[in-house]
């Protein structure tokens, strides 16, 4: 059983997790990638011309509770995001990859998701 620290982010179980339901195909989404470890789909509320979420099929609520055993899975999400970015034509112009954790970062869905944002310029530091 993976270590899952108790905390406010522990709000969702697999049964009521919207991203688990997208990964299983129960809720429709515009998929741009699917494999046995993860799926990638377009964000419902895009913040850039390209806004894709890459999620593990496994229900992990936050990067804050990811275990050492899950490191290869997290690395896979990053590599797939780079593949999707390449296919979206973003490699030359650039893109941003973001994991949000907790209220200050605005995490609203408690299933790890890697944001891939591209197609416009982003401020640094982020607002
Ligand atoms: P975050 O704030 O980091 O937790 O981002 C959650 C993102 O998930 C947010 O940008 C909107 C997106 N989102 C929430 N529900 C759905 C959904 O049902 N479908 C899709 N495609 N995206 C969703």
Describe this structure in words.
Strand 2 and strand 3 form a beta hairpin. With 127 residues, this protein is an alpha+beta fold. A five-stranded antiparallel sheet has the order 1-2-3-5-4, with helices on one face. It starts with 17 loop residues before the first helix and ends in a 9-residue tail after the last strand. It has a domain at 35-118: HIT-like (HIT family, subunit A, 2-Layer Sandwich), CATH 3.30.428.10. 21% of the residues lie in helices and 20% in strands. The protein binds 2'-deoxyguanosine-5'-monophosphate. Residues 18, 27, 29, 41-45, 53, 100, 106-109 line the site of 2'-deoxyguanosine-5'-monophosphate.
Summary, kept brief:
This protein is of the alpha+beta class and 127 residues long. The protein contains 3 helices and 5 strands, in the order H-E-E-E-H-E-H-E.
* CATH topology heading of the domain at 35-118: HIT family, subunit A
Residue windows where pLDDT falls under 50 for at least 5 positions: 1-5
Assembly status: single chain
Tally the beta strands: 5
Name the CATH superfamily assignment of the domain at 35-118: HIT-like
| Strand order, largest beta sheet | 1-2-3-5-4
Question: Which word captures the global form?
Answer: globular
Topology:
Elements: H1 18-23, E1 31-34, E2 38-42, E3 50-56, H2 71-87, E4 95-98, H3 102-105, E5 114-118
Antiparallel strand pairs: 1-2, 2-3, 3-5, 4-5
């Amino acid at each position: 059983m993976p270590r899952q620290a108790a905390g406010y982010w522990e709000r969702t179980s697999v049964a009521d997790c919207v991203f688990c339901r997208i990964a299983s195909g129960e809720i429709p989404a515009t998929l741009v990638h699917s494999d046995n470890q993860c799926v990638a789909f377009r964000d419902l509320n895009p913040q850039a011309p390209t806004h894709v979420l890459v999620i593990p099929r496994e229900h992990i609520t936050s990067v804050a509770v990811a275990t050492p055993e899950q490191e290869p899975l997290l690395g896979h999400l990053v590599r797939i995001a780079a593949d999707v970015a390449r296919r979206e034509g973003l490699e030359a112009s650039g893109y941003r990859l973001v994991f949000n954790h907790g209220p200050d970062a605005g995490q609203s869905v408690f299933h790890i998701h890697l944001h891939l944002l591209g197609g416009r310029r982003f401020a640094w530091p982020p607002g």
